[in-house]
Amino acid sequence: MGTAPGEFEIIRDYFASAAQGEGVVLGIGDDCALLQAPASGQLATSMDTLVAGRHFPEDADPAAIAARALRVNLSDLAAMNARPLWFTLALTLPRSDAQWLRQFADGLLQTAAQFGVSLVGGDTTAGPLSITLQVIGHTEMPLRRDGASPGDHVYISGPLGAAAAALPVILGEQRVDPETQRQAEAAYFFPEPQFALASAISELASSALDISDGLLADLGHICVSSGVSADVYLEQLAVAPLAQALAGKEALERAATGGDDYQLCFTVPQQQVAKLNKLDLEIFAIGILTEGDAGVRCWHNGNPWQVSSTGYKHF
Amino acid sequence: MGTAPGEFEIIRDYFASAAQGEGVVLGIGDDCALLQAPASGQLATSMDTLVAGRHFPEDADPAAIAARALRVNLSDLAAMNARPLWFTLALTLPRSDAQWLRQFADGLLQTAAQFGVSLVGGDTTAGPLSITLQVIGHTEMPLRRDGASPGDHVYISGPLGAAAAALPVILGEQRVDPETQRQAEAAYFFPEPQFALASAISELASSALDISDGLLADLGHICVSSGVSADVYLEQLAVAPLAQALAGKEALERAATGGDDYQLCFTVPQQQVAKLNKLDLEIFAIGILTEGDAGVRCWHNGNPWQVSSTGYKHF
């Protein structure tokens, strides 16, 4: 095509084909999408904005940007034990660029197909590059962050620190060999929403969330919402091999405070631990909840551990 | 407060109180909001982005920006004959500014209360000022744009051209007296979603949409979606008094092609026109649908009327 595509052509050519799937009565192209909610259970919805230069480098692979945007958003559904149904896209672009759009759309729709979620609407505007996605899912047994009690055990769903350690590589501040570069890009742009794990623990866990701002900050949110404190034993924390390779002796701090891994942090009452252990999941027990409002206290081999940062702040 | 509020404080202080209302099981503060959909009918959802410097002046009254953002989004629900239930907000701000946020939140929540819609979640990020809203509503009898047929009559729900004529005033390019300034701000920032009218015509209309891009462009969307053409008789078009006052002899063109009024354009089959007339609505018959794919043809006092523009293009 010789000319830059306009708004309606962008929507029609790149995204309209995606609006099919469960519950989609009417997809892209009208004032609203029309959706049929499941007869039972509840809807779960979450919205995330990714801004160029802040959440991803402006010149990053458009397909990787799209994949990260959707995976991050889907992770919120996973953290509530909701299965994905629909999502919408608000795309703000400095200019209409057919090649960038094609790559972005390919990455977005490939990710959508992988997780079984349908693009049902959105908006495209001109302006500084920014992506806002809203996902809507369905849950019969939601995992909330306000159900934890003193005595509950604290778990994480996998090793932490990879995405935080990868960030300097993604930003071009740290040069590494091609294989490490590939691992860094995978860790940062392709986090894995923990749907299967959330489903497995949904009848046992008293609270859960996804670790987006950093373990200690996010566990702090469970503490505030549930009215408890937490003791975390950092020697039990699983540190991602990539974090050890890239961050050296700072790897533990990256794992404790770095965001963007999108593993789950969840709590399980003492009386459910035996059932949990029978599930033989690859999870890591890292601490215990206590009474009071002291927040999250960290220990390392029996000594108090002082954190220099408690998570990513957007302002 | 001596310090600028951080992300969590913004959410907690300014928006969290709003998350109540019909179907809200769990509002702001967890990974997802949890929502209970009505037992029958369908959900309708729409997303709109407003970018500073493009959709509103960066230094506009924050409460007015918020009101316009939500009203524009609600208008999409009205156009589908959906009543509002919930909405989410993605707010990107260059810096954390407590006074701006307070005014924005006041305008947003006041508008939300007026239309009975609950803020259930969102995201705040740092970056160039931009607002993305997504509304979710409920409809038992949706008004779509693909149901029109040749012979249907074309209507608009009220006078057009006010918002387009107001734009130069809003942008500071046209100086007017204080009363006209007030009317211009009302027309641009406080469009009225046409919920009552949509409900009244829902059993009679064959198609409907809200006029956001301009009458001729939006009627063109009905033509494409329904596979019809349209003849529009511009002498029957109701031109807003403000458009006549501000745009003079260009008022008719503003009414035909200017966007942002958010009146409805809808079509009614011949055999339903008598019933429609009995409703005694303040609406305006402006044309007729025909066969073919000739798009929208305009006439003025019997002569073909050439438009110099067919609506706002975002790129």
Automatic annotation (TrEMBL), chains A, B:
**Residues engaged in binding ATP:** 122-123, 145, 212
- The record places domain PurM-like C-terminal at 150-294
Task: Name the keywords, alphabetized.
Answer: ATP-binding, Kinase, Magnesium, Metal-binding, Nucleotide-binding, Thiamine biosynthesis, Transferase
- Record keywords: ATP-binding included? yes
Give the transmembrane region(s): none
Q: Which Gene3D superfamilies match?
A: PurM-like C-terminal domain, PurM-like, N-terminal domain
Residues that hold Mg(2+) 4 according to the record: 31, 46, 76
Residues binding Mg(2+) 5: 213
Catalysis performed (reactions): thiamine phosphate + ATP = thiamine diphosphate + ADP
Domain PurM-like N-terminal span(s) in chain numbering: 29-137
* GO MF term (any one): thiamine-phosphate kinase activity
Q: What is its EC number?
A: 2.7.4.16
What's this protein's function? Catalyzes the ATP-dependent phosphorylation of thiamine-monophosphate (TMP) to form thiamine-pyrophosphate (TPP), the active form of vitamin B1.
Listed name of the protein: Thiamine-monophosphate kinase
Q: What is the lineage of its organism?
A: Bacteria, Pseudomonadati, Pseudomonadota, Gammaproteobacteria, Cellvibrionales
What is the gene called?
thiL
